[in-house]
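Page 37, top half.
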Amino acid sequence: MASSAIACSTPFIKKEDVGLSAFSSQSSFSMRNATKSVSRKIVSVMAPQQSERKPATTGSVKTAMTMTEKILARSSEKPHLSPGENVWVNVDVLMTHDVCGPGSIGIFKKEFGQNAKVWDREKLVIIPDHYIFTTDERANRNVDILRDFCMEQNIKYFYDIKDLGDFKANPDYKGVCHIALAQEGHCRPGEVLLGTDSHTCTAGAFGQFATGIGNTDAGFVLGTGKLLLKVPPTLRFVMDGEMPDYLLAKDLILQIIGEISMSGATYKAMEFVGSTVESLTMEERMTLCNMVVEAGGKNGVVPADSTTYKYLEDKTSIPYEAVYSDEQARFLSEYRFDISKLEPLVAKPHSPDNRALARECKDVKIDRVYIGSCTGGKTEDFLAAAKVFLASGGKKVKVPTFLVPATQKVWMDVYSLPVPGSGGKTCSQIFEEAGCDTPASPSCGACLGGPRDTYARMNEPQASYTYFLLEHKLTDHGKNRSFMK
């Protein structure tokens, strides 16, 4: 697979030949003299800078925009936006959770008054999910603060939990906020969704602008429903080719981050298109967008299509309108990938861009395995893990293997959905036969650390291979999917 980004300061494409090996931990580039003929290997070109067009006297000028620019233009009631502009955006959904919610509420009350009301009680979604199943009094108090605030403000969407002994006794409790937002119908094409969590970008899978914000910004949104945002330029990633059965969307995003580095998309939108992306399920698209923040991205976005609309059919009754990048839209850079040639990847310590082939790490010994989080705790992630166990021919795990379903729905699926090719066995049955830990209560679990009694938390130095793994031999070797949340 080849990919590159070539910056152009003139309307003409530079005659440079850029080659990149798809399966090497060390990217290698070769530059040829600019006087030579243009090589067909050039696969990405930054759109040339053009002088500003003056408005026509006979009417408004229609200038091409990217998806992200269109969404922000509509939400700021502007006819056109360009990267770098600062605009006041109307927020469609604000999400917060038990870690950042109390701080955001405190700022809201300090700045708007103790008796102030939120701008719209039906556009605020509050989801306890991080430090839930713990005896830590301060962590428990955070949830109490959320509950008191929601009662005071009559918040419509508060997914509460009171009985910590049995999560199933709490019908309103969901689990990991990013997965719950999708499952409960809060993600819709064309909208602006902000959340007090860096992985709010997950919702970009639905063709919307979704990004994480801090407590101060969230406090302001609580009172006004608006936020000042700078329009990001867009990087476009075109992924084509039939996706091999042994690959997951996590491999795709690790390949991309390995290409552009952890800072390669800093304050940029990352737009994912191509036949491979179109073939992905919604959960896999969520994985793709979830990790754009690991490349510094402001947001990730996938164009809405029939897969999106089918997923939303029974989840929301709120009307929405999808937008798409114009054919002549200008992208800062474009990267192209032939996914049919990609191999399973890992991110070695201590960075998501420390990319390596899984087979290169077959001799790495590990102490434990963790399958879960907003990236790897969805239903399809557990089904994929179960298939690997089936393919192992009955091998047992050699290290403690922790399972943390993202939400109540995922937990139910783990115990009820038959795994294809298993003769009717569920994921939970397959995991039990392989010697894994019993699936835990749905939450963020050990992903963010948390109190010392948090399930699967490491309280001593260990080599933990997290998120979704076990994609090769079930021995005392393992593979790292990412050491970051």
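Page 37, bottom half:
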Amino acid sequence: MHTVFRVQQIKEIQEGEMTIRQVKLTLTSDSDDQQLNALTQRMRQEITSTGWERMGALLWKLGESDKAEKVCTMLLEHASNESSRAGYYNNLGLLKGNQGKYNEAVKFYENSLNIQEKTLPRNHPDFATSYNNIGSLYYNVGEYSKALSSLERSFEIRKIALPPNHPDFATSYNNIGMVYDDMGEYSKALSSYERSLEIRKIALPPNHPDLASSYNNIGVVYYNMDEYSKALSPYERSLEIRKIALPPNHPDLANSCNNIGMVYNKMGEYSKALSSYERSVEIRKIALPPNHPDLASSYNNIGMVYNNMGEYSKALSSYERSLEIRKIALPPNHPGLAGSYNNIGLVYYNMGEYSKALSFFERSLEIREIALPQNHPDLATSYNNIGSVYNKMGEYSKALSSLERSLEIEKIALPPNHPDLASSYNNIGSVYSDMGEYSKALSSYERSLEIRKIALPPNHPDLATSYNSIGVVYANMGEYSKALQYYEKAQDIWKKSLPSNHPDIALVKRNIENVKKKM
């Protein structure tokens, strides 16, 4: 009785049509394994119920949402009092939210809250839990002002009802940080996440899953601020904890792999990115229902890597799979749908199918104008992409108008050396170059290059884009030696950062050959 094993290794063996999994176990116990003991004690504190309630809570903690739902539904049907019914409604809301079924989740939460309003005093901690969960749900469907309102209501109740380092305070700070992060208010998000982490370090054992969540979310903010080396460190710390604390196919492990992949993608390390993303999608296929939004995110991110590698048919396939899932799982004006339309537009843009690209970019902008605040960075992205298409279609005044609108938003929303500002200056330079206004083009391209030198690692593909663009201007001005100098810098970086068959490598090779002929 009470024998405990650590899973050291799982090896899959194929015997004909039968798959066998060989599992290497190490005998341990909570008496001689300090990490296991601390985590076990914490789990016992968190799962305070008994019988079937305890089983349902444990299944949810282990990521077994479907099984936990069956237990909670059975308990609700046999509930003996209103207090228990409120608890079961709340738990079913959590489970439905975890499955991506947000409309069903909100109904369960509202049922729980209605009972609490009749049976509990106004500042009871259970109210804080309900408002927190409703706020988290609004966050998941992109209704950020409603989310913030509910989460702040929860926080105010907890300030009255709980001691200052209670883990529920950490949850409040964490969830408020998530909303600020998605609203593009990164300094506020980072402040909330760091406060959450401080409390969790005091209140929880060192390998508790909630600590992993804090490290993960801090990584998310640094990622969104384009500080990729800073993002990688907390992401990796989060993954370390989750490998210890969670079962091997828990959805949170998939999230960690996904986020590490996102960093590698931005750093131009595409093979590492693809490896991390594919591990993430393997776990999510096992752990989540087939139309869960997180699966859509995995396919979306795999599409991003293939797009960056120049493998456009693979990119389009992944993006379209992501969009299919999001149409089923999300409300019609959710920012996630806008992201899918935008990314499909990018592939068509890269394939030279500009009318298709414009259609997808405009659909993305329509959703973002409804769903996001007026100076959100994603709006700038939409205007930037629409401007780039108009430039390729030769409609230069429309292109400049869109690109300058994008730049205005970015100057308000982003730090002064953010890579997106560099992209805007680069694209404005492209319009002036195509219009034959080479001095204006050179000025914009050089401003873009200055920012990228500060913001990006030395062999990032976007630096090569800047060098190549400046080379094009010098070639058009007849300054061929300067053009060659910039082309060769671009070629050197692209050879180091892109696969050998990437279109950009072929492009710069042609540019070098053409300028040498003219010299």
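Margin note: DSSP finds 24 helices and two strands in the chain.
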